[in-house]
Amino acid sequence: MKKQTAGREKLGDFAPKFAELNDDVLFGEVWSREQEMSPRDRSLITCSALMAQGLFPQLESHMKIAKQNGVTKDEMVELITQLAFYTGWPKAWSAFGIAKEIFE
Question: Which residue ranges does the record assign to the Carboxymuconolactone decarboxylase-like domain (predicted)?
């Protein structure tokens, strides 16, 4: 997994501890546990959680990571379609708009 630096780049001066936890713990320690779960599967779970909460700016970032981690367009379409019935139709429409830009 590629070293994450988004926390430090975006919040390092403003919220250095949060940036450190984001980059070193969340992405450094948790996401790097590839023996326990693949980055691809972590991406599918993360995108599901973000869509369910309607956190679309974060969903966009994680869809890009998901694509890098091997999630295909067809898999993302199925994820959004499945979740539409559990999270709400408008969230699915929003998620499809993001996915279309990333996966086309």
Answer: 16-101
